Amino acid sequence: MIRVELPVLIFIYIYVFAVVVCGLWLFSGWQRQKRRKQALRYAVRCTICASIFEDKTTDPLPRCPRCGSLNERRQLGGL
User: Residue 50: how many CA atoms within 13 Å on its side-chain side?
Assistant: First the structure.
């Protein structure tokens, strides 16, 4: 049997709890960034009417559903 004093046991408990909370916080931030990046993957901003629309086709020049103009694909959001 291993003898551990109460203050050491409390320290170990708090340390493990803090490591778990920090790990969950980092994991959730990583997941949030991944979802945001996935959402912006197919987003296209129209150069004429400035609307943002989703286009999952492979066309190099997707057509804006609002005004009908052709737009180049560019990265949005800086992620």
Answer: 0
Average pLDDT over residues 58-64: 88
Distance of CA 59 to the CA centre of its chain: 25
Please report, as a single letter, which amino acid is at residue 74.
R
pLDDT in tens, 2-25: 888 999 999 999 999 999 999 999
Residues 69/40, Cβ–Cβ less than 8 Å: no
38, amino acid identity = Q
3-state secondary structure of 19: helix
| Residue type (1 letter), 73 | R
Cβ neighbours of 56 (radius 10 Å): 7
